[in-house]
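Hi Y.,

Following your request, here is the sequence exactly as I used it, all 401 residues.
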Amino acid sequence: MKQQTLAIHACARNAGENERFVASAPPLETAASFHYRSAADLTAVANGEIDGFVYQRYGNPSAAALQRQIAAIDSAASALACSSGMAAMHIGLLTALRDRPKTILAANVLFGQTFQLLQLMEQQGFLARFADPCDLAQFEAALDQTETGCILIETISNPLLRVPQIDSIAKIASQRGVPVVVDATFAPPVMSRPLESGATAVVHSVTKYLAGHADVLGGIVTCGEADAEYMQELGRHFGANLGPFQCFLAARGIKTLPMRMEEHCRNALLVARALERHPRVAAVHYPGLSRHPDRAVAERQFDRDTQGAPMSGGIVSFEVLDADQAKTFRFMNALQLVVRTLSLGDVHSLITHPATTTHRNIGEKRRQRLGITDNMVRFSVGIEDPDDIVADVVQALESVD
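Below is the corresponding structure, written out as C-alpha coordinates. Let me know if you'd prefer a different format.
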Protein backbone atom coordinates (compact mmCIF):
# COMPACT_ATOMS: atom_id res chain seq x y z
CA MET A 1 0.00 0.00 0.00
CA LYS A 2 1.07 3.58 -0.60
CA GLN A 3 1.86 6.09 2.16
CA GLN A 4 -1.48 7.90 1.87
CA THR A 5 -3.36 4.66 2.56
CA LEU A 6 -0.98 3.50 5.29
CA ALA A 7 -1.22 6.85 7.08
CA ILE A 8 -4.97 6.33 7.47
CA HIS A 9 -5.19 2.62 8.22
CA ALA A 10 -1.96 1.55 9.94
CA CYS A 11 -2.90 2.95 13.37
CA ALA A 12 -6.25 1.12 13.53
CA ARG A 13 -7.08 -0.55 16.85
CA ASN A 14 -7.85 -4.28 16.76
CA ALA A 15 -6.33 -4.66 13.32
CA GLY A 16 -5.52 -8.36 13.77
CA GLU A 17 -6.92 -10.92 11.39
CA ASN A 18 -9.07 -12.53 14.11
CA GLU A 19 -10.77 -9.32 15.27
CA ARG A 20 -14.40 -8.71 14.35
CA PHE A 21 -14.11 -4.92 14.08
CA VAL A 22 -11.66 -2.10 13.38
CA ALA A 23 -12.11 1.19 15.22
CA SER A 24 -12.37 4.29 13.03
CA ALA A 25 -10.16 6.37 15.37
CA PRO A 26 -6.82 5.70 17.06
CA PRO A 27 -7.10 4.48 20.64
CA LEU A 28 -6.80 6.76 23.68
CA GLU A 29 -5.86 4.65 26.70
CA THR A 30 -4.64 6.65 29.70
CA ALA A 31 -4.09 3.81 32.19
CA ALA A 32 -0.70 3.91 33.92
CA SER A 33 -0.78 0.16 34.53
CA PHE A 34 -2.77 -2.82 33.29
CA HIS A 35 -4.36 -5.51 35.47
CA TYR A 36 -4.65 -9.22 34.70
CA ARG A 37 -7.02 -11.79 36.12
CA SER A 38 -4.23 -14.35 36.12
CA ALA A 39 -0.78 -14.00 37.67
CA ALA A 40 0.52 -16.34 35.00
CA ASP A 41 -0.78 -14.06 32.24
CA LEU A 42 0.77 -10.99 33.90
CA THR A 43 4.10 -12.77 34.14
CA ALA A 44 3.91 -13.94 30.52
CA VAL A 45 3.18 -10.42 29.27
CA ALA A 46 5.91 -8.89 31.44
CA ASN A 47 8.39 -11.42 30.06
CA GLY A 48 7.35 -10.76 26.46
CA GLU A 49 6.05 -14.28 25.98
CA ILE A 50 2.61 -13.05 24.88
CA ASP A 51 1.46 -9.67 23.58
CA GLY A 52 -0.01 -7.19 26.03
CA PHE A 53 0.68 -4.18 28.21
CA VAL A 54 1.75 -4.01 31.84
CA TYR A 55 2.97 -0.47 32.52
CA GLN A 56 2.75 2.73 30.48
CA ARG A 57 6.52 3.30 30.39
CA TYR A 58 6.80 -0.09 28.68
CA GLY A 59 4.10 0.82 26.18
CA ASN A 60 0.35 1.25 25.89
CA PRO A 61 -2.30 0.91 23.15
CA SER A 62 -2.08 4.60 22.15
CA ALA A 63 1.69 4.49 21.72
CA ALA A 64 1.50 1.14 19.96
CA ALA A 65 -0.97 2.51 17.41
CA LEU A 66 1.18 5.56 16.67
CA GLN A 67 4.34 3.46 16.43
CA ARG A 68 2.62 0.99 14.10
CA GLN A 69 1.44 3.88 11.93
CA ILE A 70 4.87 5.56 11.71
CA ALA A 71 6.71 2.29 11.11
CA ALA A 72 4.38 1.53 8.21
CA ILE A 73 4.77 4.86 6.42
CA ASP A 74 8.52 5.06 7.15
CA SER A 75 9.27 1.53 5.85
CA ALA A 76 10.62 0.63 9.31
CA ALA A 77 10.63 -2.57 11.32
CA SER A 78 10.11 -0.67 14.57
CA ALA A 79 9.25 2.80 15.85
CA LEU A 80 9.56 4.36 19.30
CA ALA A 81 7.40 7.32 20.33
CA CYS A 82 9.34 9.72 22.56
CA SER A 83 8.51 12.75 24.69
CA SER A 84 10.30 15.14 22.30
CA GLY A 85 12.27 15.20 19.09
CA MET A 86 15.49 15.65 21.07
CA ALA A 87 14.70 12.56 23.19
CA ALA A 88 14.21 10.66 19.93
CA MET A 89 17.51 12.01 18.61
CA HIS A 90 19.36 10.90 21.75
CA ILE A 91 17.91 7.38 21.56
CA GLY A 92 18.56 7.19 17.82
CA LEU A 93 22.23 8.03 18.31
CA LEU A 94 22.63 5.59 21.20
CA THR A 95 20.94 2.87 19.16
CA ALA A 96 23.42 3.37 16.34
CA LEU A 97 26.38 3.58 18.73
CA ARG A 98 25.72 0.27 20.47
CA ASP A 99 29.05 -1.57 20.78
CA ARG A 100 30.63 1.08 18.57
CA PRO A 101 33.39 3.69 18.96
CA LYS A 102 32.09 6.85 20.64
CA THR A 103 32.90 9.10 17.70
CA ILE A 104 30.11 10.77 15.70
CA LEU A 105 30.73 12.27 12.26
CA ALA A 106 27.99 14.87 11.89
CA ALA A 107 26.90 17.26 9.18
CA ASN A 108 28.51 20.67 9.56
CA VAL A 109 25.09 22.36 9.64
CA LEU A 110 22.48 20.93 12.01
CA PHE A 111 19.57 22.08 14.14
CA GLY A 112 21.03 24.18 16.95
CA GLN A 113 19.73 21.94 19.72
CA THR A 114 21.34 18.94 18.03
CA PHE A 115 24.68 20.74 18.22
CA GLN A 116 24.07 21.23 21.94
CA LEU A 117 23.10 17.59 22.45
CA LEU A 118 26.38 16.55 20.85
CA GLN A 119 28.25 18.90 23.20
CA LEU A 120 26.52 17.33 26.19
CA MET A 121 27.35 13.86 24.91
CA GLU A 122 31.00 14.89 24.75
CA GLN A 123 30.87 15.33 28.54
CA GLN A 124 29.94 11.63 28.67
CA GLY A 125 32.94 10.52 26.65
CA PHE A 126 31.60 10.86 23.10
CA LEU A 127 33.36 12.90 20.41
CA ALA A 128 31.65 14.83 17.62
CA ARG A 129 33.41 15.81 14.40
CA PHE A 130 31.87 17.76 11.54
CA ALA A 131 32.07 17.74 7.73
CA ASP A 132 29.98 18.87 4.79
CA PRO A 133 27.74 15.94 3.74
CA CYS A 134 26.98 17.64 0.42
CA ASP A 135 30.67 17.31 -0.50
CA LEU A 136 30.97 13.53 -0.76
CA ALA A 137 34.73 13.52 -1.22
CA GLN A 138 35.27 15.70 1.84
CA PHE A 139 32.80 13.69 3.89
CA GLU A 140 34.38 10.36 2.94
CA ALA A 141 37.82 11.71 3.78
CA ALA A 142 36.57 12.87 7.18
CA LEU A 143 35.06 9.43 7.75
CA ASP A 144 38.45 7.82 7.20
CA GLN A 145 40.40 10.20 9.42
CA THR A 146 39.52 8.28 12.56
CA GLU A 147 37.45 5.29 13.64
CA THR A 148 33.83 6.46 13.47
CA GLY A 149 30.95 5.13 15.55
CA CYS A 150 28.11 6.59 13.48
CA ILE A 151 27.17 9.30 11.01
CA LEU A 152 24.52 11.97 11.69
CA ILE A 153 22.94 13.98 8.86
CA GLU A 154 19.66 15.74 8.06
CA THR A 155 17.52 15.05 4.97
CA ILE A 156 17.23 18.82 4.46
CA SER A 157 19.59 20.89 6.58
CA ASN A 158 18.27 23.35 9.13
CA PRO A 159 18.19 26.27 8.25
CA LEU A 160 20.20 26.40 4.99
CA LEU A 161 18.13 23.69 3.23
CA ARG A 162 20.99 21.73 1.67
CA VAL A 163 20.15 18.16 0.58
CA PRO A 164 22.86 15.49 1.03
CA GLN A 165 22.86 12.30 -1.03
CA ILE A 166 21.65 9.92 1.65
CA ASP A 167 21.94 6.82 -0.52
CA SER A 168 25.57 7.62 -1.46
CA ILE A 169 26.51 8.41 2.13
CA ALA A 170 24.83 5.21 3.32
CA LYS A 171 26.76 3.20 0.71
CA ILE A 172 30.07 4.76 1.78
CA ALA A 173 29.21 4.10 5.42
CA SER A 174 28.10 0.53 4.76
CA GLN A 175 31.44 -0.29 3.14
CA ARG A 176 33.06 0.65 6.46
CA GLY A 177 30.41 -0.87 8.72
CA VAL A 178 29.34 2.54 10.05
CA PRO A 179 25.64 3.13 10.90
CA VAL A 180 23.85 6.26 9.68
CA VAL A 181 21.34 8.29 11.70
CA VAL A 182 19.13 10.70 9.74
CA ASP A 183 17.06 13.57 11.12
CA ALA A 184 14.13 13.59 8.70
CA THR A 185 12.05 16.33 10.34
CA PHE A 186 12.02 18.56 7.22
CA ALA A 187 11.10 15.67 4.92
CA PRO A 188 8.50 13.39 6.57
CA PRO A 189 7.87 9.83 5.32
CA VAL A 190 5.40 10.89 2.63
CA MET A 191 8.36 12.68 1.00
CA SER A 192 11.36 10.56 1.88
CA ARG A 193 12.17 7.30 3.68
CA PRO A 194 15.92 7.17 4.46
CA LEU A 195 15.74 3.59 5.74
CA GLU A 196 15.04 2.54 2.15
CA SER A 197 18.31 4.24 1.17
CA GLY A 198 20.38 2.42 3.77
CA ALA A 199 20.04 4.54 6.91
CA THR A 200 20.21 2.75 10.27
CA ALA A 201 17.88 4.96 12.30
CA VAL A 202 15.59 7.87 11.37
CA VAL A 203 14.46 10.61 13.73
CA HIS A 204 11.32 12.72 13.32
CA SER A 205 9.95 15.58 15.38
CA VAL A 206 6.30 14.63 15.84
CA THR A 207 5.71 18.25 16.89
CA LYS A 208 6.24 19.40 13.33
CA TYR A 209 4.65 18.02 10.15
CA LEU A 210 3.61 14.64 11.54
CA ALA A 211 1.08 15.93 14.08
CA GLY A 212 0.88 19.16 12.13
CA HIS A 213 -1.43 21.29 14.26
CA ALA A 214 0.83 22.87 16.93
CA ASP A 215 -0.75 20.86 19.75
CA VAL A 216 1.72 18.00 20.30
CA LEU A 217 5.28 17.90 21.65
CA GLY A 218 6.90 14.62 20.69
CA GLY A 219 9.44 12.69 18.67
CA ILE A 220 9.74 9.37 16.88
CA VAL A 221 12.77 7.23 16.07
CA THR A 222 12.51 4.34 13.61
CA CYS A 223 14.93 1.57 12.66
CA GLY A 224 15.32 -1.76 10.91
CA GLU A 225 14.89 -5.23 12.34
CA ALA A 226 18.50 -5.61 13.51
CA ASP A 227 18.27 -2.67 15.93
CA ALA A 228 14.60 -2.89 16.90
CA GLU A 229 14.85 -4.68 20.23
CA TYR A 230 17.77 -2.60 21.48
CA MET A 231 16.00 0.63 20.55
CA GLN A 232 12.85 -0.46 22.37
CA GLU A 233 14.94 -1.47 25.40
CA LEU A 234 16.49 2.00 25.50
CA GLY A 235 13.01 3.49 25.40
CA ARG A 236 11.81 1.35 28.30
CA HIS A 237 14.78 2.18 30.52
CA PHE A 238 15.20 5.85 29.63
CA GLY A 239 11.51 6.48 30.30
CA ALA A 240 11.26 9.06 27.54
CA ASN A 241 7.95 7.69 26.26
CA LEU A 242 5.28 9.90 24.73
CA GLY A 243 2.05 10.24 26.73
CA PRO A 244 -1.13 8.56 25.44
CA PHE A 245 -3.05 11.75 24.67
CA GLN A 246 -0.14 13.11 22.63
CA CYS A 247 0.04 9.75 20.83
CA PHE A 248 -3.67 9.95 20.08
CA LEU A 249 -3.40 13.49 18.67
CA ALA A 250 -0.33 12.62 16.60
CA ALA A 251 -1.91 9.48 15.13
CA ARG A 252 -5.01 11.46 14.23
CA GLY A 253 -2.91 14.20 12.63
CA ILE A 254 -0.86 11.78 10.55
CA LYS A 255 -4.00 10.57 8.79
CA THR A 256 -4.00 13.84 6.82
CA LEU A 257 -0.20 14.16 6.53
CA PRO A 258 0.01 13.17 2.83
CA MET A 259 -2.48 15.83 1.75
CA ARG A 260 -1.07 18.48 4.07
CA MET A 261 2.49 17.86 2.95
CA GLU A 262 1.58 18.20 -0.70
CA GLU A 263 -0.03 21.56 0.06
CA HIS A 264 2.97 22.70 2.12
CA CYS A 265 5.28 21.85 -0.79
CA ARG A 266 3.15 23.51 -3.44
CA ASN A 267 2.80 26.69 -1.40
CA ALA A 268 6.49 26.76 -0.50
CA LEU A 269 7.50 26.60 -4.16
CA LEU A 270 5.15 29.47 -5.02
CA VAL A 271 6.50 31.55 -2.14
CA ALA A 272 10.11 30.77 -3.07
CA ARG A 273 9.54 31.84 -6.67
CA ALA A 274 7.87 35.08 -5.55
CA LEU A 275 10.76 35.83 -3.20
CA GLU A 276 13.30 35.03 -5.92
CA ARG A 277 11.75 37.79 -8.04
CA HIS A 278 11.48 40.40 -5.28
CA PRO A 279 14.07 43.21 -5.39
CA ARG A 280 14.35 43.38 -1.58
CA VAL A 281 15.44 39.76 -1.22
CA ALA A 282 19.15 39.02 -1.47
CA ALA A 283 19.00 35.22 -1.66
CA VAL A 284 16.45 32.40 -1.48
CA HIS A 285 17.27 28.89 -0.27
CA TYR A 286 14.79 26.25 -1.43
CA PRO A 287 15.57 22.85 -3.01
CA GLY A 288 12.78 23.24 -5.58
CA LEU A 289 14.34 26.28 -7.25
CA SER A 290 16.41 25.79 -10.40
CA ARG A 291 19.36 27.69 -8.86
CA HIS A 292 19.56 25.52 -5.75
CA PRO A 293 22.81 23.49 -5.74
CA ASP A 294 21.03 20.30 -4.67
CA ARG A 295 17.93 20.50 -6.84
CA ALA A 296 18.84 17.38 -8.82
CA VAL A 297 19.47 15.45 -5.60
CA ALA A 298 16.13 16.57 -4.17
CA GLU A 299 14.24 15.54 -7.32
CA ARG A 300 15.85 12.11 -7.25
CA GLN A 301 15.60 11.56 -3.51
CA PHE A 302 12.12 12.91 -2.68
CA ASP A 303 8.75 11.59 -3.80
CA ARG A 304 6.43 13.32 -6.22
CA ASP A 305 2.95 14.43 -5.25
CA THR A 306 -0.27 12.92 -6.56
CA GLN A 307 -0.14 15.30 -9.54
CA GLY A 308 3.39 14.22 -10.46
CA ALA A 309 5.16 17.36 -9.24
CA PRO A 310 8.42 17.04 -7.24
CA MET A 311 8.07 17.67 -3.50
CA SER A 312 10.88 19.82 -2.08
CA GLY A 313 9.61 20.50 1.43
CA GLY A 314 7.63 23.23 3.13
CA ILE A 315 10.51 25.39 4.40
CA VAL A 316 11.97 28.40 2.58
CA SER A 317 14.94 30.31 4.01
CA PHE A 318 15.79 33.71 2.58
CA GLU A 319 17.90 36.79 3.22
CA VAL A 320 16.55 40.33 3.35
CA LEU A 321 18.62 42.60 1.11
CA ASP A 322 21.07 44.96 2.87
CA ALA A 323 19.53 44.19 6.26
CA ASP A 324 21.08 43.96 9.69
CA GLN A 325 19.36 42.24 12.60
CA ALA A 326 17.25 45.30 13.45
CA LYS A 327 15.96 45.69 9.88
CA THR A 328 15.27 41.97 9.63
CA PHE A 329 13.26 42.19 12.86
CA ARG A 330 11.27 45.12 11.43
CA PHE A 331 10.40 42.97 8.42
CA MET A 332 9.29 40.11 10.68
CA ASN A 333 7.23 42.44 12.88
CA ALA A 334 5.44 43.84 9.80
CA LEU A 335 4.02 40.42 8.93
CA GLN A 336 0.28 40.25 9.64
CA LEU A 337 -0.67 36.68 8.62
CA VAL A 338 2.61 34.88 9.24
CA VAL A 339 3.28 34.00 12.90
CA ARG A 340 6.63 34.64 14.63
CA THR A 341 7.67 31.50 16.52
CA LEU A 342 10.48 28.99 17.07
CA SER A 343 8.64 26.04 15.56
CA LEU A 344 7.81 24.87 12.04
CA GLY A 345 5.65 22.38 10.17
CA ASP A 346 2.32 23.77 11.36
CA VAL A 347 -0.74 24.42 9.18
CA HIS A 348 -0.09 28.11 9.91
CA SER A 349 2.74 29.94 8.17
CA LEU A 350 5.55 30.51 10.68
CA ILE A 351 8.77 32.50 10.63
CA THR A 352 11.85 32.62 12.83
CA HIS A 353 15.28 34.25 12.95
CA PRO A 354 17.77 31.38 13.28
CA ALA A 355 20.73 33.49 14.41
CA THR A 356 18.89 34.59 17.56
CA THR A 357 16.65 31.57 18.16
CA THR A 358 17.28 28.03 16.90
CA HIS A 359 21.03 28.57 16.37
CA ARG A 360 21.67 31.24 19.00
CA ASN A 361 24.03 29.04 21.02
CA ILE A 362 26.41 28.56 18.12
CA GLY A 363 29.26 31.07 18.19
CA GLU A 364 28.80 34.12 15.96
CA LYS A 365 31.91 33.42 13.88
CA ARG A 366 30.77 29.85 13.24
CA ARG A 367 27.27 31.02 12.30
CA GLN A 368 28.69 33.51 9.83
CA ARG A 369 31.04 30.88 8.38
CA LEU A 370 28.10 28.48 7.90
CA GLY A 371 25.96 31.19 6.28
CA ILE A 372 23.48 31.69 9.14
CA THR A 373 23.51 35.47 8.86
CA ASP A 374 21.68 38.24 10.71
CA ASN A 375 19.52 38.94 7.64
CA MET A 376 18.38 35.32 7.19
CA VAL A 377 14.92 34.10 8.18
CA ARG A 378 13.51 30.58 8.12
CA PHE A 379 9.97 30.55 6.75
CA SER A 380 7.75 27.52 7.37
CA VAL A 381 5.09 27.89 4.69
CA GLY A 382 1.62 26.87 5.84
CA ILE A 383 -1.41 25.62 3.96
CA GLU A 384 -3.29 28.91 3.79
CA ASP A 385 -4.20 30.27 0.35
CA PRO A 386 -0.83 30.90 -1.33
CA ASP A 387 -1.93 34.30 -2.63
CA ASP A 388 -2.54 35.45 0.95
CA ILE A 389 0.84 34.14 2.11
CA VAL A 390 2.74 35.85 -0.72
CA ALA A 391 0.81 39.11 -0.25
CA ASP A 392 1.70 39.23 3.43
CA VAL A 393 5.41 38.63 2.84
CA VAL A 394 5.52 41.19 0.02
CA GLN A 395 3.80 43.90 2.04
CA ALA A 396 6.16 43.28 4.96
CA LEU A 397 9.22 43.51 2.70
CA GLU A 398 7.98 46.71 1.13
CA SER A 399 7.18 48.31 4.48
CA VAL A 400 10.80 48.10 5.65
CA ASP A 401 12.94 51.15 4.90
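The chain is about 40% helix and 15% strand.

Thanks again,
Q.
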